[in-house]
Amino acid sequence: MRLPNLLATKNGRLMAFFLLYVTEGIPLGFAATAVATRLRRLDVGPAEIGAFVGSFYLPWAFKWAFGPLVDVFSSDRWGRRRGWILSTQVMMALTLLSTVMLELPQQLGLFTMILLVHNTFGAMQDVAIDALACSTLHEDERGLANGMMFAGATIGAMVGGSGVMYLSGVTGFQPTFYFVAASILAVTAFVVLPMKEAPGPARAPVPGSRLAQAGREMQVFAIDSFRSFLGSPGAFGGLLFSLLPAGAMCLGLALQSNLAVELGMDDDQVASLGLWSSILGAAFCVAGGYLSDRFGRRRTLFIYLALMSLPVFYLMNELSRFGWIMPVSVNAANRPPVPAALLTAFWIATLVYSVVQGLMYGTRSAIMMDVTNPAVAATQFTAYMALMNLAISYSATWQGIAIEAWGYPATMMVDGVFGLACLLVLPWLKRSDGSSTSYADALGAGRARAMARVLGLLCIAWAPCSYGGAWFGAAMPIIGTLFTLIFVASALFLLASRAVLGESGGWAARCGAWTAPLLLLLYARYYLDEVARWLPDGIGAAAFVATLQGAMVAVALAAGVLLLLLSLQPWRQMQVGSAQPV
Predict the structure, then answer these.
(1) What's the pLDDT tens digit per position in 104-113?
(2) CA dist 214 to 85, 210, 222, 432, Å?
(3) Dihedral sign, Cα of residue 241, residue 247, residue 248, residue 252
(4) N or C: lower Cβ tally within 10 Å for the chain?
């Protein structure tokens, strides 16, 4: 029996993109719920689990970089988008299956690296699916299709999270890897393989290699994104809003999984909690979008973001009241009994949080579209979404560290308060009136100089902070996470500066482009002690670590100086109507 080409009909297209997004949600639910819960049962600490979940979101923060590759390296025989979807889904299944024989938690580092590669293919798939949707969906189908895509991602997260948790009670945890891989490959076999993508427009011959063409597209992306982000107050506010946590986040990340295990919930109970949370979240996402259309996006989003802190503060108070402050090892000899009232409070807080988070998700994407320049919509909106994933990544990381350093209530207090910071930016996110000046004003150059100055000073500040571990105490790892975000932002700024300023940027812009990769490599500072253990005899580990730490401080200082020099540039390329450099 020949399977139908779902792209041939309206209902088929809606079902196809629903199922394709299911495959995007499966690995995220698997990591954030099933694997995180399993690791806590194996007595892995909250900091390691937070780093694991945070690293899993990193590829989604840089998915914009895959766009030029998907556009340029494609096959007309297999379909320009279909070929990428097919290959990435197969690689997602293969990378997942390669972890079946790994021992946890002994090989957690290798397990994390493989799943990072696995999720990189997932982010590539997302870019290809979105591109296919743009070229395939009819205009009158896009609203409903986007709703079904989000629902598909939620169902996928439920399959990878709750589904795996239910199944692990029957088969054990390790065999569930086959189930997750089979779920992805089922969509590959029954949806992607029979799919017939319409041929794209004829390709115009371009000079140079395809790799060079992809590089040129990435340069255009950098220029468009940079100018769009800084071109207006709304767009600049969107940049800051994307980098900040969207409300309190701890009850949607690994902190919730850690607490579920510590409070004595078995796998079926954790799965049930995830199931109901997903159902409520998906339903109220639709409700949130509807209410925002009726009563105004900024007004409703302000309320939703503020409400997200309430269940966090409620659970924080209950944890303090019952004395559940620090993480409790699952193997502790004298584990304290879990009060039934505390477990009930955990259920209430988690379900209420899912409702409010769903309302927020249904509104946040819409308000980001309001400040996006239609001329570069794909570029700017994709970059906003990528930065939001970066916010999820660093939030999961710092919260895991904070739980071990400060305990659950203090971490939740900081998360609940810091989650309100985005409310300060919300007044900037005004719907554009559609005129050209609403997307680009005369202050873009000033914003570029100000951002360069702030990032430069922050990079230089790493020098005293890196040697101030004794002063910061237990908070030093959290300070390190903050500077990781600063280094990533600075590296992207330096790369974009080179593209936007061109030769007018002088040697500062040229050197900045070479310094940017070194800034990204500063993440390796967390693994210096581990690398030192591999050194042959005769090489002092302490001297080796100290030398590399000094080199890393020098990189941060150099980047800071270059950014300060760029803050002195006139940035005429940011002016309204200015020509882009070739």
Answers:
(1) 888 888 888 8
(2) 19, 6, 12, 32
(3) negative
(4) N
